[in-house]
């Protein structure tokens, strides 16, 4: 049987882990570890992944995992890195792996601090656009239009999703990128790249669907993240040194099918979808401008 | 001091020592995925049941020999069919819903030509001799196919042909500009290499049948429709027979012609006669009793004829031919439609207008042909007869099977090949399992729930477990296929005067062929894309020797593998309580 080029064969996840059926976050970790390999240590703050990885005395990963407090992924990863360095182990990659709540909100200060200090680890945010583990509360990553437990009924979220890659790029970290679980080769390439880049925190923002919170059938978990990319709602791109943008692909589909396939947006009217389309179009135009802008250079 | 302090505090970091494999998360599941290859619409429509999706898949990897062998399992004439089959597969192709159907016939022709130029051998498909001899009458596509498949199944075959060369209509009907002689010669040679003895110049008469019955275990009748139907009008003897004309041309007699040549008829023969006439310099005018849309000729052929300048007069029938000053005066009655016949063609009757006279230089008839029955299957009065989809199995002293144009509702090359294959299976079944097993064995060898028979399924080398469900467009995950127009080998632009008896359409280059094969959705068959394994969140899909396996201990039944399968191979079934 043929294996696919660009997708390493070995998995570092054990079956029997505790993700819901069709969990995008589980697929995201699967790809990340395929790329990073056995010489990896994972730092996990409170999140769904804190549960997925198994309750003591079990582990769902074949590499070491350090569970840590919700707000502390950036700080704990800094400490783990320092400990490895003291031991003379420069080979092992530290991967901080946090949800959107743990990244955009409560963990933002520790991540920002680590980024500013130029710590040497990969920080991956698997973004399911709400606090899923505690029952779908809104985070600053929750998109405009979504209903959550804390933005219910007619109070659906009216504010925009925070642009976390821009916030990290503003720290002038050496590498920031977005990834989607629908594009395994692209995501794996980015993790391989992040492992080799040195000189600061490497940040990867992954759109990882959550069938339970997004109200989609579990089999659509990959398809939905593909549509997010194909509609430019979640563009795939890379930022070098916080300045140099590379767009990986350009979508050509409207956002409507993406929105309409998800129960979390089922209350939106056609006008509101049009409003989302406008936001996507203007964000995409802005991003393209950044990618086209070759003059930026730091002195 | 530090160490002292630390020694007093027990450092209790809990460390997991066992994996989550103890959780059999398969218990959560209420739907179960499975791999089940299905039937592609093209294959279900192909009279010979070629495994087109697999041919497409193999060819897309550039494995031309393997693709050729996959065709040869079902059809001994890839190159002939690449040229002349009316390819209903392309009409059924799911890809047409995305952009355009896959150019299967171009692909088949390319693979067929490679088979000839590379000298691929089909002998690997042969099974050891079973010591039985079968006589075959007629070396058209049905007879050759019967002999090929019978040899494959271990029978020894003698094929008797009344003409001086084998091939039937392929040899003396279809003109060289559609089917070059070298293609036919090479593909027939390959049938001979399977061990078939072809005896030309050997006309089988009713008297010889008895002799055959004494010396052979079975007899296949594929002697076709060789005798032209006549119109029964005054002056008919002044008209030339279209099939004779085509035969003369294939013999190499290419007389220069001029003037208007009326061609009576609306089938493939009428088209071929007209297109040949235009190549010889005449101005052909087809006269057909019904309307253009009712013509039994393949529409691609009709369009080619119109493009080349052939004129067609609809709804007219000749009532008399007279000679006048060295020309022929054709008296025509115009017709009008009154409803439809059972086959959906218009029923026509003379309209009220007076007959019209048409002055022409030649008249050719091509209104159809019939058999000059050696043994007529229907008159036999044999209750041990089984009418099958493409043949008629009868049991007298020995089994006698009729096929090809003699029995087929649709008279085409691929239907004739299907007859030969069906006859071979029926004969083989008869000798191994008896008369009563024939229907059932043929029934399970069908592609999907349709008529086409598959030798691979009959021999059970094909995944006999393939589901009869025919894949529709909605079963395909089109996210994995982008809009790509069909590859068309560029037709060399030719001026009208330059029309010749050479094939006009060039063949695919290897690159074009591989490109075209890559457009195929491979409906219902696994193309090894690995999506099911790659996307499984639960590490529950693994590669095994000939496919992939789902570990139901852990599969939670999310269904991602099913949704992400590009070709509709996987399916979800609800768990039974
Ligand atoms: C002009 C023309 C063009 C066509 N074009 C196409 C096309 O493009 N595509 C397509 O799919 N179909 C086409 N067809 C139809 C197709 O050719 C036939 O359906 C097919 O050839 C039938 O095959 P067969 O084996 O039954 O008979 P045939 O091809 O007719 O072969 C019968 C053979 O038996 C021999 N024979 C007859 N009597 C005896 C006897 N007593 N003893 C020994 N041998 C005998 C004959 O000489 C002949 O060789 C065309 C038909 C015609 C007439
Ligand atoms: C300081 C603190 N506050 C609250 C919690 C409860 N808690 C555990 S996981 C979680 C949600 C995490 O959301 P996110 O980071 O987006 O990850 P997800 O569960 O969505 O994957 C919360 C609020 C906690 N563990 N610690
Ligand atoms: S709640 Fe959502 S993110 Fe959490 S394990 Fe289930 S599917 Fe995955
Ligand atoms: Mg979250």
In a nutshell, what does this entry contain?
The complex is a heterodimer of chains A (299) and B (577). Helices cover 37% and strands 15% of the residues of chain A.
What does this entry look like structurally?
Chain A has one domain: Rossmann fold (3-Layer(aba) Sandwich), CATH 3.40.50. Chain A is α/β, with parallel strands linked by helices and 299 residues long. The longest helix of chain A is centred in the C-terminal third of the chain and has 23 residues. Chain A contains 11 helices and 9 strands. Helices cover 37% and strands 15% of the residues of chain A. Chain B has 577 residues and is of the alpha/beta class. Chain B has 4 domains: 67 residues, Alpha-Beta Plaits, CATH 3.30.70; 131 residues, Orthogonal Bundle (Fumarate Reductase Iron-sulfur Protein, Chain B, domain 2); 179 residues, FAD/NAD(P)-binding domain (3-Layer(bba) Sandwich), CATH 3.50.50; 137 residues, FAD/NAD(P)-binding domain. A 7-stranded mixed sheet of chain B has the order 5-4-3-6-20-19-18, with helices on both faces. The radius of gyration of chain B is 30 Å and the shape is elongated. The N and C termini of chain B lie far apart (66 Å). The interface between A and B is large, with 40 and 42 residues.
């Amino acid at each position: 049987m043929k294996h696919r080029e660009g997708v390493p064969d070995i998995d570092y996840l054990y079956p029997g882990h505790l993700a819901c059926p069709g969990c995008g976050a589980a697929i995201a970790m699967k790809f990340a570890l395929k790329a990073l390999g056995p010489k990896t240590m994972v730092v996990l703050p409170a999140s769904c992944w804190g549960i997925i990885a198994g309750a003591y005395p079990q582990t769902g990963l074949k590499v070491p995992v350090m569970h840590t407090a919700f707000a502390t992924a950036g700080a704990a990863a800094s400490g783990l890195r320092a400990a490895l360095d003291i031991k003379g182990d420069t080979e092992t990659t530290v991967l901080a792996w946090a949800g959107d709540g743990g990244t955009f909100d409560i963990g933002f200060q520790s991540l920002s601090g680590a980024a500013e200090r130029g710590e040497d680890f990969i920080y991956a945010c698997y973004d399911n656009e709400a606090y899923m583990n505690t029952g779908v509360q809104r985070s600053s990553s929750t998109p405009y239009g979504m209903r959550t437990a804390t933005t219910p009924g007619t109070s659906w979220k009216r504010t925009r999703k925070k642009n976390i890659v821009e916030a990290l790029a503003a720290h002038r970290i050496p590498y920031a990128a977005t990834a989607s679980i629908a594009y395994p080769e692209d995501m794996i390439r980015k993790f391989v790249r992040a492992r080799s880049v040195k000189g600061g925190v490497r940040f990867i923002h992954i759109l990882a669907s959550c069938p339970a919170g997004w109200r989609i059938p579990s089999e659509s978990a990959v398809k939905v993240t593909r549509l997010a990319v194909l509609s430019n709602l979640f563009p795939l791109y890379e930022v070098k040194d916080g300045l140099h943008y590379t767009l990986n692909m350009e979508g050509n589909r409207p956002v409507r099918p993406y929105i309409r396939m998800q129960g979390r947006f089922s209350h939106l009217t056609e006008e509101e979808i049009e409003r989302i389309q406008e936001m996507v179009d203007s964000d995409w135009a802005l991003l393209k401008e950044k990618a086209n802008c070759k003059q930026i250079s730091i002195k | 001091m530090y160490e002292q302090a630390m020694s007093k505090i027990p450092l209790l970091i809990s460390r997991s020592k066992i994996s989550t494999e103890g959780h059999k998360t398969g218990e959560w599941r209420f739907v179960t995925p499975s791999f089940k290859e299905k039937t592609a619409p093209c294959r279900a429509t192909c009279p010979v049941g070629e495994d087109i999706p697999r041919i497409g898949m193999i060819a897309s990897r550039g494995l031309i020999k393997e693709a050729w062998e996959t065709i040869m399992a079902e059809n001994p004439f890839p190159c002939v069919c690449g040229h002349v089959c009316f390819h209903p597969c392309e009409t059924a192709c799911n890809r047409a819903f995305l952009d355009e159907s896959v150019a299967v016939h171009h692909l088949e022709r390319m693979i067929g030509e490679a088979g000839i130029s590379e000298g691929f051998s089909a002998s690997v498909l042969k099974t050891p001799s079973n010591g039985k001899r079968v006589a075959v009458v007629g070396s058209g596509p049905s007879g050759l196919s019967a002999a090929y498949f019978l040899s494959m199944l271990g029978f020894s075959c003698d094929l008797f042909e009344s003409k001086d060369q084998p091939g039937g209509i392929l040899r003396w009907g279809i003109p060289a500009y559609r089917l070059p002689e070298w293609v036919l010669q090479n593909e027939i040679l390959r049938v001979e290499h399977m061990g078939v003895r072809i005896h030309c110049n050997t006309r089988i008469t009713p008297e010889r049948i008895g002799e055959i019955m004494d010396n052979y275990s079975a007899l296949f009748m594929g002697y076709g429709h060789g005798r032209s139907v006549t119109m029964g009008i005054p002056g008919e003897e002044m008209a030339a027979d279209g099939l004779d004309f085509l035969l003369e041309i294939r013999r190499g007699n290419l007389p220069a012609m001029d003037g208007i040549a009326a061609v009576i008829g609306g089938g493939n023969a009428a088209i071929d006669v007209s297109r040949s006439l235009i190549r010889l310099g005449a101005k052909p005018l087809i006269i057909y009793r019904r309307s253009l849309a009712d013509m039994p000729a393949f529409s691609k052929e009709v369009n080619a004829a119109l493009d080349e300048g052939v004129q067609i007069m609809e709804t007219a029938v000749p009532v008399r031919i007279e000679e006048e000053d060295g020309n022929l005066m054709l008296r025509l009655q115009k017709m009008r439609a009154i409803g439809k016949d059972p086959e959906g063609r218009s029923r026509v009757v003379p309209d009220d207008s007076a007959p019209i006279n048409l002055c022409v230089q030649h008249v050719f008839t091509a209104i159809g042909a019939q058999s000059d029955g050696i043994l007529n299957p229907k008159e036999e009065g044999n209750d041990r007869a089984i009418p099958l989809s493409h043949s008629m199995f009868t049991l007298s002293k020995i089994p006698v099977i009729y096929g090809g144009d003699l029995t087929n509702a649709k008279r085409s090359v691929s239907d004739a090949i299907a007859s030969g294959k069906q006859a071979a299976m029926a004969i083989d079944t008869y000798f191994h399992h008896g008369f009563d097993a024939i229907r059932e064995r043929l029934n399970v060898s069908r592609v999907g729930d349709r008529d086409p028979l598959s030798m691979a399924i009959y021999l059970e080398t094909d995944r006999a477990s393939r589901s009869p469900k025919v894949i529709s467009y909605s079963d395909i995950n089109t996210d994995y296929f982008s809009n790509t127009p069909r590859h068309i080998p560029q037709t060399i632009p030719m001026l009208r005067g330059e029309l010749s008896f050479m094939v006009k359409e060039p063949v695919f280059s290897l690159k074009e062929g591989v490109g075209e094969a890559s457009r195929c959705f491979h409906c219902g068959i696994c193309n090894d894309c690995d999506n099911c394994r790659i996307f499984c969140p639960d590490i529950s899909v693994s590669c095994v020797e000939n496919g992939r396996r789902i570990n139901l201990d852990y599969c939670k039944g999310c269904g991602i593998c099913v949704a992400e399968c590009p070709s509709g191979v996987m399916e979800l079934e609800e768990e039974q309580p």
